[in-house]
Every structure is written in structure tokens, then in C-alpha cells.
Amino acid sequence: MARKYFGTDGIRGPANRAITPDLSLRVGQAAGVIFRRGDHRHRVVIGKDTRLSGYMIETALCAGFTSMGMDVMMLGPVPTPAVAMLTRSMRADLGVMISASHNAYEDNGIKLFGPDGYKLSDEVEEEIETLIESDMSAKLSKPGAIGRAWRVDDVRARYIEAAKRTLPRHISFEGMRIVIDCANGAAYKTAPQALWELGADVVELGVAPDGFNINRDVGSTAPQALIDKVRETRADIGIALDGDADRVLIVDEKGHKVDGDQLMAVIAESWRRAGRLSKPGVVATVMSNLGLERHLGGLGLELVRTAVGDRYVLEHMREHGYNLGGEQSGHMILSDFSTTGDGLVAALQVLAVVHEQGRPVSEVCQRFEPAPQILKNVRYDPGHPITPSRISAVVDEARASLGSTGRLLVRPSGTEPVIRVMGEGEDAVRVEKAVDAVCTALRANA
Predict the structure, then answer these.
(1) Number of other CB atoms surrounding residue 381 within 10 Å
(2) pTM (2 decimals)?
(3) Average pLDDT for residues 4-25, to the nearest whole number?
């Protein structure tokens, strides 16, 4: 069934336009109805990133949950993986992260986690959607059973300790200069503190949020500031997180970017040597580079592909017993440690490999030569979506031009109003021509 509110990563849209106080209130009420199970006092934890609209949405969600008899623990600005972790460790019935991840401050979103710390299934999200549009007045709590809300102060320290425990005991990054770019987002305190406690010489970027500057010219989707700072300070490595810190991008000591595909290869090789892979393979999406698939195949490891979205990667991992997966964009899922993508923990695993091998990041993290791949976005009016049938002939022709070893993917984003066109093949010029032809057709039909 077509869904009105939920996309590939929760509910997301322009704050006070799509994501309104009324919608937030109703999301809290609907989720409260579904997760109010049994006679115990129910609890929900709510975290957020640093967007101005987070205050508005947090207040509305609190009203919705408390009206259904759930107590609310407000965590303040914390990374998405911290919310997932604390949902379990604080025995909450539900976790909520208020964030639009890598989007600009004008957008915001609501991500929901079950009591096990995992994102909700499509079926549960559909139940919530049905309730949002129904009359829930009969389900409101009695006056004496309305929930309470309060702020919790020690959550950042708890998350930092949990992240550090993913490393071997007594490991130290002393002598390493690390530039950490927190995107003026949710990890602006936790990530620099964790790295400093592990002994690193920390250079900070994107740690002065003002409600408006999240992801603005900083973070994993805008790495130039990190590249410049790494070169300026002669750092050993640069680490960029996104607004809610569930994805990571690495920059080596030369200022070259290292994407999620290379990071998966680094961790997979390390875990394979240590006998830590639960199955001989890695789960990624259809966007991951053919070079990664070939590299892993040479190591005797399989690359399993899923639909785009870290939730689909994780679902496959859980169903089939894998403990390593991720996306080219930098969502790394290390299920031994976390129930969702965790940019800081993934960075710590890479740092551990660099520390162990005693070689520069440029050598450790360039594991394979990527096949030529081009990704372009075509923006459209959300009120007038592009009908795929209008450009099917152009897509078929472009796909055929890439030959049997090439790939062409055309898909709508689940987080913003754009169509993503990705081409991959042996010939970079041919790939670019195929992608441009599809983009031109999309713009003509927008």
C-alpha cells in the first residue's frame, strides 16, 4: 500500500509545513496506542538533533505520548544510535529521534524505534499511519493516568562509554591527530569527547550549532571543510558525521575522500582475519560499487545487495545472520554493537585497524579501485511526481548502452523530492552519457 507519511527513514519533510505540531502530536498518540502493551507504566525516550524546529516537535510529541499515558524521558541533542541504544538500556517501550539526518535545517523528521532498539517494520508503520488519520479520542488516558515528562542528563556519557567499549581494551589513539566534523549536529559534544578520551589530539569542526547551521557547508555531505582542515593541520585522518551521526565519511591524510564502500571493505577484511564475521559476506545496497563486489569476492566473501535504505540492509542482516552491512553513503551497521547505523562506532573500528597496522590511512582505507560510477539527482515538484512510464524508453536505451557488465538505477529518494539516477560500467564516458540522457528526460517531464 502507498504510504502517506513514512518514507525509507521515518517521517520527513519541511518543518511547520509537512512536519507540523498537529502531525507530531498525532504520531505520538498513534505510536502510544500501539506500544501501550500490558499494565506496566510505559516509557518513551526522545532524542533530537540541533534544528530549531526540534523544540516544537519534541513538545508536540510529548503531549501526544503523555495523553496516551506514557511517561517521556527527553534526552536532548544526541546521535540517532544513542537513542536506539538507550531505548533498550533504559527499558523503554519506544524510542524517538527527531532529525532529518543530512538535510538542511528547514526540514525535520521523526524516526521511531521499538523496545528492542530496531527501527519499526513497514507493517507497524502502516498501523501508525492508519491511526494518525482516525479518531483517537476514545483511546486517551483517564485524567489520573496521564503521563509525565522529564529531562535525562547523563545520556551523552552513557553513549560515549558504550562507543568506547566496542574497541579492544586499553587501545589508545595517542599520537594521532584527528579532525572530527560533527556537522553542527547531534554528535557535536559526544564524538569529540570520545576521541579525546581515547587519547587523540582532536581538531573540531562543526561543533557550534545555532539551530540553523546543521549540515551547512560541513558534515559528511559537504566534506570540503574537512578536507581543507586535514591538510591545514597535517592530520592523520578526518572524520565527518552527518546531522544525526548515523553515517560517516573518512578523509585520509592527503585529503582524499573514503566512502562507505571502502570502509566496509576495511572492516570486512579486519573482521575476517580476526574470525569475527558471523557469515562470509557483507550486506550492502544496489548503490554499492561493483569494485567492492569484486574485491570481496577475491577474499572469498559475498556481497549481498538490498534495496536502498539502511533499514533494508539491517532487515536482511537480521534475517540471514550477517553482522556487517552498510551503504556507500556511509551508513555502517555493525550489529555486534548497535541496532542501527552508527557513524562514530564505525569510525572507531577503522581507527582501530589504522592503529593496528601502523600505516597511513591512505594505504589502509583504499582497498580497491572503484568501477566508473556516476550519481546525479533531478529535483521535482512533490505535487507533480514524475511518472516512470514517460521515460521508460529512454531508460531502456541507456541501460542497453552500458552492456552486460553495466548497471543503471533510476529511483525516487525516500527522504527528499528528487529522482536519483546512478550509472555504472567499464567505460566512464559511456556511463556519463547514459546518466545524462535519463536526467534530461526526467527534467523534460518534471
Answers:
(1) 9
(2) 0.93
(3) 95
- Determine whether 101 is an active site residue: yes
User: Are 109 and 120 in the same domain?
Assistant: yes
Do 164 and 233 lie in one domain? The reply is yes
> Measuring CA to CA, which residue among 344, 109, 371, 111 is closest to residue 249?
344
Are 441 and 399 contacting, i.e. CB atoms less than 8 angstroms apart? no
Cα dihedral sign, 292-294-297-302: positive
Task: Please give the Cα distance from 442 to 402 (Å, whole number).
Answer: 19
Question: CA 79 to CA 193: how far, in whole Å?
Answer: 13
Q: Which of 53, 101, 329, 335 is catalytic?
A: 101
Burial of 332 (0-12, 13-18, 19+ CB in 10 A): buried
d(CA 294, CA 263): 15
Interval 163-180: pLDDT, tens: 999 999 889 999 999 999
CATH number of the domain encompassing residue 234:
3.40.120.10
* Structure confidence at residue 11 (pLDDT): 97
Domain count, the chain: 4
Q: What confidence tier does 382 reach under pLDDT thresholds 50, 70, 90?
A: confident
Evaluate whether residue 352 is within a structural domain: no
